[in-house]
Amino acid sequence: MDGILIIDKPAGMTSHDVVAHVRRIIGERRVGHTGTLDPFATGVLVILVGRATRLAQFLSGAEKEYDALVRLGFATDTGDITGTRIQSTSENVTNQPRTWPDEDVESALQSLRGEIEQVPPMYSAKKQGGKKLYELARRGHEVERKAVRVTIHSLEVDGGTPKWKENDDGTTDIRLSVTCSAGTYVRTLAEDFGRQLGVGAHLAELRRTKAGDFSIEKALSLEQLEQSVIQKALTNVLLTPDSALQQLPFVSLSEDDVRRTQQGMALKLPSGLNGVTATADNIRMRDEAGKLIAVGSYDPENLLIHPRVVLSVEQRR
Predict the structure, then answer these.
(1) Which secondary-structure segment (H or E) carries 210?
(2) Is residue 155 classed as helix, strand or coil in its secondary structure?
(3) Model's pTM, two decimal places?
(4) 268: helix, coil or strand?
(5) Is 38 annotated as catalytic?
(6) Quick one: average pLDDT of 206-220?
(7) In the chain, where are the structural domains located?
(8) Annotated catalytic residue, options 8, 38, 242, 257
(9) Vertex 157, ends 154 and 161: CA angle to 5°?
(10) In the CATH scheme, what is the code of domain 248-310?
(11) 3-state secondary structure of 104
């Protein structure tokens, strides 16, 4: 059982919880995920099953898309709705929500587009000194964090025009659509967006709608996954390992080349290039039926492909 499952993660579960549920449902021990989602967040979680778990290194850097509900009015210590309300200490930021002219909103969004630097929040799984930051935060420790560069490819008001929602507690909500590089903290984006408008802000809802080539339309709930197992239709929803790496060029292997690849032997580049260039780092190595045998690294100087991650085991006769 080797392949990819796209799960619509429900709110209130950690990504690790989802992996544990999938293990139980499908009866497979080797299950992993790429691209952690916070417990309060929902949406696309890419689950790797069986030998496909070896592909995590090629998927962790995939671009992500999100729908985010930003709540303007106050900040929290976690940057999201799960945290404790805090008072802003900045002279330029208040806790008085209101609505803003469209041009002010656009100016705030524009300042956050493109390549920017983000300081990882204390309540994050990023490690520092061997400890996860959220573990330190829960003990009341705050440490200096190094800013990281991320890319915000798109940051827009959902629907194009701000539709303000005023809440009973005096806060104001606005929905944003985000397309960003891996490693982006949307919580931090929400806080910075509020800061640009001069008001405390936090992330009230977050839904990942796409991770790499996998969109929410293809995602299954855990209940739907369970039903597919009961109906013995798991193969209908289990995507092939090859489908996870469509962005990589590929070569087609002969039967003899398949056996050599399964033994970890380097191959001369076959005649069918299929998008392979001198700058290609990783290459899908597929058999004549299109099954992914391995992912190889390309040596352009010697025109060799070295199997890097082998997924297919040689059948013993």
Answers:
(1) strand 201-211
(2) strand
(3) 0.88
(4) strand
(5) yes
(6) 95
(7) 3-62+213-241, 72-203, 248-310
(8) 38
(9) 135
(10) 2.30.130.10
(11) helix
